[in-house]
């Protein structure tokens, strides 16, 4: 679908595990992914590049993860400042690998 036809634009939230983007192959996959969405004329993509284990660690030791920023439904937030309920929801979201 041509996203320019959508009157209020579109937004895509994507979560990748860090391993997905490692090395030259990972960068190539990301470039291919972005090219595909450019061809679809997608207007806005937001990325989280973190794994669930890191987020669970941040729940246990928030003092060690004060700078960890995540995307939350259209805005960025420090993970450790979010409620436990929101943190758990972010952890449950699907992580995609290319």
UniProtKB/TrEMBL annotation:
One of its GO terms (cellular component) is cytosol. The modification Glycine radical is found at residue 74. InterPro entries: Form_AcTrfase_GR_CS, Gly_radical, GRE. Keywords: Organic radical, Transferase. The keyword Transferase applies. The keyword Transferase applies. Residues 1-98 form the Glycine radical domain. One of its GO terms (molecular function) is transferase activity. Gene3D superfamilies: 3.20.70.20. It comes from the Bacteria. This is Formate acetyltransferase. It comes from Salmonella enteritidis.
């Amino acid at each position: 679908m041509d996203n320019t036809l959508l009157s209020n634009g579109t937004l895509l939230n994507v979560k990748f595990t860090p391993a997905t983007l490692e090395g030259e192959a990972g960068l190539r996959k990301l470039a291919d992914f972005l090219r595909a969405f450019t061809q679809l004329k997608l207007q806005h993509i937001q990325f989280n590049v973190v794994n669930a284990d890191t987020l669970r660690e941040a729940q246990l030791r928030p003092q060690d993860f004060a700078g960890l920023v995540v995307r939350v439904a259209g805005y960025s937030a420090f993970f450790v400042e979010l409620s436990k309920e929101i943190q758990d929801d972010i952890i449950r979201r699907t992580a995609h690998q290319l």
